[in-house]
Design brief:
Length: about 230
């Protein structure tokens, strides 16, 4: 089932890219495997998936230990500062940085371990009270401040759009995030490499791709419904 699901998503991505004149390889699929057992991750791995997304530190570390080492692990959930030390040398990209304090902690641990950590800034574009993320107004300044820190590279922006029936309702948020992204590129800040826009999930990834997503984060459409919902 996982194999069919992944093939279906890949062909959707291909189709969407053709329609909107983008290169297929510019849209990367992250298999969001939170709450799912390693056996299912291995199935996805065998279908060629190398990008996996998790939202809990302990779960990411457990799976990191059990899975092949050529996987790129994406931390996509809210990250507490006291847990940063467990993942800085294991993650490929942290999507959920939304404060200078968190970035400072990542920087400190990265320097300690002699690694450079790539991050995205999470923006709460839709201003949902239940969600983390910085505001559209603050993101530019935050990027400039974080860019000064050693051991950390700002690679782009991420947003989690609201849960909606009709993905068209989220187009405005994806469009807004891309605008902010372009604004930051034009500022030409040292040490900022705006390359990635992480947006789009099971319900709205096609819309997100047409608005410029470079990473789509997909869980349910690959692995099925989660047993318990984690609203992080
Ligand atoms: C769970 C989660 C996803 C995947 O959601 P689906 O709707 O199952 O595709 C994507 N991004 C984040 C940040 C998540 O927490």
């Amino acid at each position: 089932m996982i194999k069919e699901n992944i093939e279906c998503i890949r062909s959707k991505i291909r189709e969407t890219c053709e329609k909107c004149g983008r290169k297929q390889e510019d849209v990367k699929l992250i298999a969001v495997s939170k709450t799912k057992p390693v056996s299912m991750l291995k199935e996805a791995y065998d279908c060629g998936c190398r990008d996996f997304g998790e939202n809990k530190v302990q779960e990411l570390v457990d799976k990191w230990e059990q899975m092949p080492k050529d996987i790129r692990w994406h931390m996509i959930g809210h990250l507490q500062r006291n847990k940063v030390k467990y993942i800085v040398d294991k993650v490929y990209l942290i999507h959920s940085v939304d404060s200078l304090r968190l970035a400072e902690e990542i920087s400190k641990e990265a320097v300690k371990k002699g690694v450079t950590v790539s991050i995205l800034i999470e923006v709460n574009v839709a201003q949902e009270e239940t969600k983390f993320g910085t505001t559209c107004n603050d993101v530019c300044n935050l990027v400039e401040e974080i860019a000064k820190l050693p051991g950390i590279l700002v690679k782009g922006l991420m947003t989690i759009a609201p849960y909606v029936e009709n993905p068209e309702e989220n187009r405005q948020y994806f469009e807004k995030l891309r605008q902010i992204y372009v604004d930051i590129i034009q500022k030409n800040v040292d040490n900022v490499y705006m390359e990635e826009l992480s947006m789009g999930m099971t319900g709205d990834y096609v819309t997100a791709i047409t608005e410029g997503a470079t990473y789509v984060r997909i869980g349910t459409a690959i692995f099925g419904e989660r047993l318990y919902v984690n609203k992080e």
